[in-house]
Amino acid sequence: MASQLAIAFCTMAHVVLLGCYFYTGFIYKFEVVEKLHGHRVRAFQRAGLRPPNSFGGDLKFLTIWNLIFQTFYFFWCCVTDLVLTSGSRSPIAKKFVAFRDWFLAAVAFPIGTLVVSMFWAIWAVDRELVFPKELDEFFPPWLNHVLHTTVLPILLIEMFLVQHKLPSRKVGVMGTLFVGLSYLLWVLYLGYAMDIWVYPVLKVLSGFYFGLFLTVSAFFLLGLYIVGEKISEFCWRGYPDSDYEFTKID
Q1: Considering only CA atoms, which of 100, 131, 132, 137 is closest in space to residue 115?
Q2: What does each C-alpha distance from 154 to 13, 21, 69, 134, 161 come to in angstroms?
Q3: How far apart are CA 98 and CA 76, in angstroms?
Q4: For residue 104, what are the contacts with CB-CB under 8 A and spacing of at least 6?
Q5: What SS3 class is residue 46?
Q6: Can you say how many angstroms the Cα of residue 55 is from the centroid of all Cα atoms in its chain?
Q7: Residues whose CB is less than 8 angstroms from the CB of residue 247 and which lie 6 or more positions away in sequence, other chains included
Q8: pLDDT band of 33, cuts 50, 70, 90
Q9: pLDDT tens across 171-214, in order?
Q10: Residue 162, helix vs strand vs coil
Q11: Secondary structure of residue 28 in the 3-state scheme
Q12: Euclidean distance between CA atoms 9 and 17, whole angstroms
């Protein structure tokens, strides 16, 4: 009974978190973005200037990539919970669990941690570089924190409550680096092809410094992956390794 209650608790938590991320995306897209875009267009028109190129929309920002990743992760958790609580122990169910665990280790945790750590590190130096004060008029404080703060503690609680069988380090790291490289190529394409520099510092990097930037970024992402791996191992050391182990609450 205790195990069933624990499974039900984790399933409900996943459903609630999925709903929260969907709601966050809805508010961001249909309230914040629409109002902010209208405000900026009117400001350029008053100044007699042409509004800047909006190609790529908000998908230029890693924060939005991360919001999509976190929403997808908890959606997949809900689907996996449904498969497992139906009593299925088929090879298909095992694949659902394996993909859930791989996505957490390779994408959701390292990218989520990167967004949180970089956002607040830059904010501590100069918030105007990452979240200008003018945005306070359009962003309710809770939305900023859902996008840039609560991501990490939610993932840590998830790793504590739900046992995840991590992929091999090679497979996990390849996934992390693939996502990181994909975003970097997207940003560089926007910069060089569309003259939209999401991060202006990349515009001035060349030769040795550009190579150094890529190397440091790759090792930083690798470090975040290993941190997530160690946290998961620490939370579940001494517990049996099982594809279908849900929780240690009981």
Answers
A1: 131
A2: 10, 12, 14, 28, 11
A3: 11
A4: 73, 155, 158, 159, 164, 228
A5: helix
A6: 22
A7: 3, 6, 7, 9, 10, 161, 162, 163
A8: confident
A9: 999 999 999 999 999 988 988 888 888 876 777 777 788 888 88
A10: strand
A11: helix
A12: 12
Cα dihedral: 184, 229, 120, 63 (round 10): 40
* Cβ-based neighbours of 157, under 8 Å, separated by 6 or more: none
- Share in percent of the chain as helix, strand, coil (round to 5): 80, 0, 20
Distance CA 126, CA 148 (A): 16
Q: What are phi and psi of 38, to 5 degrees?
A: -60, -40
Three-point CA angle 44, 48, 51, nearest 5°: 35
Adjacent-strand bridge partners of 162 = 247
**Is the confidence at residue 38, as pLDDT, over 70?**
no
Do 57 and 68 meet the contact criterion of CB atoms below 8 Å apart?
A: no
Is the CB of residue 237 less than 8 Å from the CB of residue 158? no
- 247 forms bridges with which residues in the sheet? 162
CA distance 126 to 137: 18
Is the CB of residue 163 less than 8 Å from the CB of residue 236?
yes
